[in-house]
Amino acid sequence: MKNANKAVSNRIGDESIEEKAAARILNLGLDLHYRQVTAGMQEDGGRIKPQGKMCYERFAHWVQKRLAEGWEIHSCYEAGASGYWLHRELVAKGVKNLVVTPKPMDKGGKKQKSDKRDGGAIVRCAGALSARPG
Q: What is the pLDDT of residue 82?
């Protein structure tokens, strides 16, 4: 009898470990420029924080490192002159990526559009991937 209970408790323990592993979601909001990317990030639904500016080579290395650590990465960036090369590269690495329509500047001039503000807003779009089934 004890062994049967132990097996059940181990299964429950295994499920909680799997749930924790599945919950490691890193949402990235990307603002692309000619030679660099500005990233905002949100770990496991926490607070959105700026990751900073990186050249594309360094960014690719940073993403690969996070994937190796076990993060499921959801990213998003605004469509623009840079095209879709980064989208294809991220998807090939296993990142779930969205390319969205650029957001216009706020009307009335209340808030000035900036890389940091764009990164934070775009992280929320990446978070939408987490909420989607499949």
A: 82
List, for residues 81-103, the tens digit of each pLDDT value. 888 999 999 999 999 999 988 87
**pLDDT above 80: residue 120:** no
67 burial type by CB count under 10 A (0-12 exposed, 13-18 middle, 19+ buried): middle
pTM: 0.68
3-state helix, strand, coil in the chain (%, to 5): 45, 25, 25
| Domain 26-131: assigned CATH number | 3.30.420.40
Residue 99 vs residues 5, 22, 31, 92, 133: alpha-carbon distances, Å? 49, 24, 11, 15, 18
How far is residue 102 CA from its own chain's centroid?
Answer: 18
Domain positions in the chain: 26-131
